[in-house]
Amino acid sequence: MPADWTAIENAIQAFVARSASLDGAKVIWRDQNGQRPEGVTFASLSITGDLSAGLLDEARHVDNPDGIAGDPLAVPPLIGTELLLQTVAQGEFTLSIDMYSKSATGAGAARALLTKVKNCLSKESELQALDDAGLAIIDRGTVQNLTALLETQYESRANLDVRFRVADGTEEAATYIETAQVTTTYD
Amino acid sequence: MSLFDLSGEVAAFATDNLTVTRAGAEGYDANGRRTSAGASSFVVAASVQPATSRQLQRLPEGFRERDGVAVFCATELRMRDRIAYRGVNYEVAQVDGWNDAGGYCEAVAVRMA
Question: What is the mean pLDDT of residues A37-53?
Fold first, then answer.
């Protein structure tokens, strides 16, 4: 079954906003050709490095996907879509979180905010929220202080790369074999 | 109040009526996705001339190799405004806004990729 990337992105973004105590509009997805959010503290997110986790796809089929679970024949199947073929594989991706702040020190510094986000990756409630979106954390990464000059003033910046695993796959409707041709002698 | 008002001169030398499209206010929703209010369009009378090599040289990298035009008009233009000029779309990449002091605006727009 294909991963629901909108739900995955929303779950990740909500997690970062909660963990860093930022308004949702201050935790944005990168590369949208927009301006920086208003205010001085914000985070940007990016998903990179989508790859297969190296495990074989699992293939399975569902009889009469339009039927009722446990009693597939209670509703007659639609002709031509009697079967649903599914493949499922584990994928792995890296979530890159960049935090920006004007505070160089204290709890408001980008490094401190991102450390808070990293620590929240251990909270049971947050793990459950991410699990509900089909995500499993496999590496919490390292917070790096990347404070740099922005025009004439220092801007507190930090980065954290978190690796996730997610189940992803494909679906296609199929039908039963209705006719077969034999072109050789069958004993 | 303008130190000098050249809006009349700019209008007198107008070569084209340009349709300018301006993006609406931008922001981000609660899910961190970009939002944009609907774009608005208006027509301005402008003098359109080839951008000089010096004007193009002042543009950021990536814009210098594109066709550019210099636009003089009485209406204030803004960065990223889109201009339809003789069937080709241009984007404003540089603005010298003399509207307050001189009653006109000079902008350089480059052909959109």
Answer: 85
Nearest chain B residue to A10 by CA: give it: B31
Q: Angle between the A124-132 and A5-20 helix axes, to the nearest 10 degrees? A: 160
Q: pLDDT of B31-40, one tens digit each?
A: 999 998 889 9
The complex scores an ipTM of 0.78
CB of B34 less than 8 A from some CB of A: yes
pLDDT of residue A56: 66
What φ, ψ does residue B100 adopt, rounded to 5°?
A: -70, -45
Tell me the helix, strand and coil percentages in chain B, rounded to 5: 15, 45, 40
Count other C-beta atoms under 10 Å from residue A176's C-beta.
Answer: 9
- The DSSP H or E segment spanning A148 is strand A148-150
Q: How many CB atoms lie within 10 A of CB B28?
A: 23
Mutate to test the interface with B, among A29, A46, A96 (most CBs of B within 10 A): A29
Burial tier of A140 (Cβ tally within 10 Å: 0-12, 13-18, 19+): middle
Q: How far apart are CA B18 and CA B87, in angstroms?
A: 10
- Residues of chain B contacting A28 with CB distance shorter than 8 Å: 28, 32-34
Residue A7 parent element (H or E):
helix A5-20
- Report yes or no: B78 and B92 within 8 Å, Cβ to Cβ: yes
- Answer with the residue of higher pLDDT: B46 or A77: B46
